[in-house]
Specification:
Blueprint: H1 11-25, E1 33-34, H2 37-47, H3 52-58, E2 63-64, H4 66-75, H5 79-94, H6 102-112, H7 117-126, H8 130-137, H9 145-156, H10 170-178, H11 183-187, H12 192-214, H13 221-232, H14 237-246
Antiparallel strand pairs: 1-2
Helix pairs in contact: 1-12, 1-13, 2-6, 3-5, 4-5, 5-9, 7-8, 8-12, 10-13, 10-14, 12-13
């Protein structure tokens, strides 16, 4: 089954397509992201981020995975813990490359070290208000949607619910567009926070359908998001610019 076969957005066809990909993906569901600790340390020092040293001690093997983010989220019982988790999620998103993010991440690290933006968005996630969490997290300067949703995702890893925050980056948006699914139509609004909330709900719906129809019992919304991320990587860059503005 190819992209063209599911361009009408048929839910059954989408679930079958995701199921085929997930069966392969579940063989290695949580690959680590490697990073250069000296680079991260330099960025922490330049931004004056107090918790930087503690973060690198927690990630001493120079890698971060979703499992490691979950551990950090479980142990984040104060503002310092939230800041450590935020920094780890930014390292996870950046990896070894993406040097062009340096000024933006330094600006974000400075801001979250001196304001309550992390606490506000974390509280909204706890209350299940993902639209409010999105609006609060997007106020973190220097970060676009692909990165501030990584923070929301990391903090939500401890929640005992199907509808946890998910990452929404260009790959995921491109995959959703190719699957024929429109966040604008699902939300009934052009407001980005409501469209994000609709995306999380749809990923949860697909996860339940994959359990029921494809026998993939360990799949949740995060697994669907990762499948979309991988699938979106095959979409030509020229097609990605249309995905979110029209979707």
């Amino acid at each position: 089954m190819a992209w063209a076969d599911i361009a009408d957005g048929s839910s059954g066809q989408i679930v079958a397509y995701l199921g085929r990909h997930l069966r392969h993906q579940l063989r290695s569901p949580d690959p680590p992201v490697w990073f250069v600790s000296s680079t991260s340390q330099h960025w922490f020092e330049e931004s004056g981020f107090r918790e930087g040293r503690d973060v690198l001690l927690r990630l001493r093997d120079d890698s971060v995975s979703r499992r490691r983010l979950r551990q950090l989220a479980q142990e984040a019982d104060d503002l310092a813990g939230l800041r450590q988790l935020f920094a780890a999620s930014m390292i996870w998103g950046r990896g070894k490359s993406n040097g062009r993010m340096k000024p933006h991440l330094i600006r974000a690290l400075r801001e979250v070290g001196s304001t309550r933006l992390l606490e506000a968005s974390a509280l909204s996630v706890r209350h299940g208000d993902l639209a409010a969490a999105y609006e609060e997290a997007r106020q973190i300067p220097g970060l676009g949607q692909a990165f501030f949703t990584k923070w929301l995702f990391a903090w939500g890893l401890t929640l005992d619910t199907q509808q946890r925050p998910l990452v929404l980056d260009e790959n995921v948006k491109a995959a959703l567009w190719e699957l024929g699914w429109s966040s604008r139509e699902a939300a009934g609004s052009a407001r980005l926070a409501l469209r994000y909330e609709a995306y999380v709900r749809r990923a949860s719906f697909w996860a339940e359908a994959l359990d029921r129809e494809e026998g993939l019992h360990s799949v949740d919304g995060a697994a669907v998001e990762y499948a979309l991320f991988c699938l979106g990587g095959s979409v030509p860059r020229a097609q990605r610019f249309r995905a979110w503005s029209r979707g």
